[in-house]
Amino acid sequence: MSQSTITIEELVELISTCAGIRTDAASAAARTFEELGVDSLGVLGIVAEIERRIGRKLPGDADMSPSPAALVALVDEGAPASLERL
Amino acid sequence: MDTVITGLGAVSPAGVGTAAYWAALVEGRTLIAPIPHFDTAGFPVRLGGTVPGFDPHEHLDGRYVVQTDAFSWFAMVAAAEALRDSGADTAADPYSTGVLVCSGAGGVEFGQRELAALCRSGPDHVGPYQSIAWFYAASTGQVSISNGLKGMCGVLVTEEPGMLDALGQSGQELRRGTSAMLVGGSEAPLGSPFSLACQLETGLLSTGEDPGTAYVPFSEEARGYVPAEGGAVAFVEGSSDARARGARVRAVVAGHASTFSGVGSMDPGGEGLLNAALGAMARAGVGPDDVDVVFADAMGTPKADADEAAAIRRLFPRGVAVTAPKTGFGRAYAGAGALDVAAAVLSLEHQVVPPTPHVSDPPVGLDLVVRVARPTPLRTALVLSRGAGGGNSAIVLKHPDHA
């Protein structure tokens, strides 16, 4: 059973493995991808890895998410639990 | 205006840095060993010259490591050394310094990894950096980006002679107004089964399993060459610019020429190599008595070696010292010419001809330096290089005191 959401800590790990940039949860939560030094191809790789983990596609503009926090929110929005809440 | 080398960097089977490279060359150290990167079972070739214990994270920002293949890592690390060595302030005008790094194959290991993911799991599993990492131009691009060098940039794909040709082309670029160029060549041909498989069709690779006898050009036991990984980069500028900023001139690029003489194969007969050497010497304004050492191409097959020896005898009827230090570690394709140029610069600087490791006796009629290094006055070196596909190049390098 795949997970349905992603934590900021998991995103910190993906930023390291997919984009080669080391950061921490506090920085990742507060900064934009650009401020962290993650380029557009890096975000593309992170989005692809998240999609594999949650087992579903994110919206087509997910790779345009300006920040890790925005990307976490985007994943939350589409999660089954959050859909049930609606 | 003379083109001069004021910075040098190398990543070789001797390790990272020109100091490690030169120390191994002078010793004639054996740097050939079983290829460690993957299981070579099923391949007729087992030996290679690989960069020992190379961890890109020790040398490069993590973001560049995930974006690039090893051939770019080697170029970036060698370029960083060459830049430091030059002492040049390239940040003052980023548009005045260009980059020209040669590649013969691109990022094959990276490409194999991503293509394997494509075939195994589908297109969603191909990483986005595949779009840049495996291209020939990736090394030049990343050297440019990571150092903020925004002048003329290009990649030259002329196989082994690449660095010699890049030096020749950089001279033209300097005359057009570029202040300085980082020029070099690098290759990582031993990282994956696919890259080794691509080399087998030439039929020139040694199937030897003993590092001491697998690559022995100019000898009766010659049986092909051992492949290697690595590269070298030089910082070049005009002699007047170098003088004006008080830079240490490591060598003068006195003349270059290239010929093309064998469609789809190595130069047959050595005529192409001979004419490249004649052209380079004419442009440098040197005759046979002015050249003190020849860095031979040393292909390692009886015919190619005999052709090269004949060409050298015709060029130097009264003899000349000849060496091929690459027999200690192998041929690194686009990195090979670059490592030979680096060896020639270091040789002129130290006034020592490094030996040709593993070749125990010189062939008749060729003053091949074997067994031990030869200290001798050196004013001028000639570097010869042949590539798969028929390109031949020669370059004349001079000691700054004799330019």
TrEMBL record, chain A:
<dbReference type="InterPro" id="IPR009081">
    <property type="entry name" value="PP-bd_ACP"/>
</dbReference>
<feature type="domain" description="Carrier">
    <location>
        <begin position="5"/>
        <end position="79"/>
    </location>
</feature>
<dbReference type="Pfam" id="PF00550">
    <property type="entry name" value="PP-binding"/>
</dbReference>
<keyword id="KW-0597">Phosphoprotein</keyword>
<dbReference type="InterPro" id="IPR036736">
    <property type="entry name" value="ACP-like_sf"/>
</dbReference>
<dbReference type="InterPro" id="IPR006162">
    <property type="entry name" value="Ppantetheine_attach_site"/>
</dbReference>
<keyword id="KW-0596">Phosphopantetheine</keyword>
<protein>
    <submittedName>
        <fullName>Minimal PKS acyl carrier protein</fullName>
    </submittedName>
</protein>
UniProtKB/TrEMBL annotation, chain B:
<dbReference type="InterPro" id="IPR000794">
    <property type="entry name" value="Beta-ketoacyl_synthase"/>
</dbReference>
<keyword id="KW-0808">Transferase</keyword>
<feature type="domain" description="Ketosynthase family 3 (KS3)">
    <location>
        <begin position="1"/>
        <end position="399"/>
    </location>
</feature>
<dbReference type="Pfam" id="PF02801">
    <property type="entry name" value="Ketoacyl-synt_C"/>
</dbReference>
<comment type="similarity">
    <text>Belongs to the thiolase-like superfamily. Beta-ketoacyl-ACP synthases family.</text>
</comment>
<dbReference type="Pfam" id="PF00109">
    <property type="entry name" value="ketoacyl-synt"/>
</dbReference>
<dbReference type="InterPro" id="IPR014031">
    <property type="entry name" value="Ketoacyl_synth_C"/>
</dbReference>
<protein>
    <submittedName>
        <fullName>Minimal PKS chain-length factor (CLF/KS beta)</fullName>
    </submittedName>
</protein>
<dbReference type="GO" id="GO:0004315">
    <property type="term" value="F:3-oxoacyl-[acyl-carrier-protein] synthase activity"/>
</dbReference>
<dbReference type="InterPro" id="IPR014030">
    <property type="entry name" value="Ketoacyl_synth_N"/>
</dbReference>
<dbReference type="InterPro" id="IPR016039">
    <property type="entry name" value="Thiolase-like"/>
</dbReference>
<dbReference type="InterPro" id="IPR020841">
    <property type="entry name" value="PKS_Beta-ketoAc_synthase_dom"/>
</dbReference>
<dbReference type="GO" id="GO:0006633">
    <property type="term" value="P:fatty acid biosynthetic process"/>
</dbReference>
<keyword id="KW-0012">Acyltransferase</keyword>
